[in-house]
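Hello, quick one for you while I still have it in my head. Could you read through the record and tell me how the tokens relate to the sequence? No rush at all, and the record is pasted right below.
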Amino acid sequence: MITAILLSIAGLIGLAIGGEFLVKGSVGIAQRLGVSNLVTGLVIVGFATSMPEMVASVQAVALGSPEIAWGNIAGSNIANSMLILGATALIAPIVLKGTGRRDAVVALIVSALILAIGVAQLASIWIGVGLLGILIAYIIWRYRHPRSDDDEDDEVPPKMWLAVVYFIIGLGLLVGGGKLLVDGAIDLARLAGISETVIGLTIVAIGTSLPELAASVAAALRGKPGLALGNVVGSNIYNLLLIGGVTMILAPLPAPASLNDVEWPLVVGTALVILLLFWFASRISRWMGAGLLAGFVAFNVFLFV
């Protein structure tokens, strides 16, 4: 048990640090090569911040535990929408911009699609290919219809050689951390008699969301809490389409039916809440953030009761 816990902790640390390094490196390389801020933010940052979830899910599938992968996808989206937004709003209220509504609509539609696939217990390599195709279409659409704030960027990128070093270190830590985390999580599930799906929903999901949490809290402390909202919505879309698509291709098995009762509906529900906030609220206040955090804690308690 001690070994499994230590492996999980080491993996979480590796993923958190590796995710941060990978984002810094990939963004720095893109900016030094003259790639636009829109493409950097939408494609490179979106992909890089989803790499911890991707690595953990692929490692889980490779070890014959796709339940952890699907639990990680659902749990990461729940953590993004409740834990990360809640913590960020608690630090500094998040001003809502109408320009983010389109992405919130996409996130809700994609969430509902994954729920439908889960309820119908569909499984096919072609479903995975279709999810990746939708992601590509979304990226192209967003590239052709940028938001007014897509090109805002006031940070100086690191030198090219340093960006490459960041990228290599980050990638190595992600791969190694993902392997350790999944190995430890599987051992913990078996030793404690907990289902691998629940482990994916909790330990793995929260662990792989640490880079987004750190980035969002840092943005709030720098007086830019609005960055957290775009980070959350974009990450949720990538999790469902990119990681869900890859998982379905590598292991064309239905997502665990147990997720259909609470987890997938909660993913859809939180996506709907975010969209409604865009339409009817001017900001996510501190008391709203406290409510989101309380809901996240209650959800995790529910999983183990």
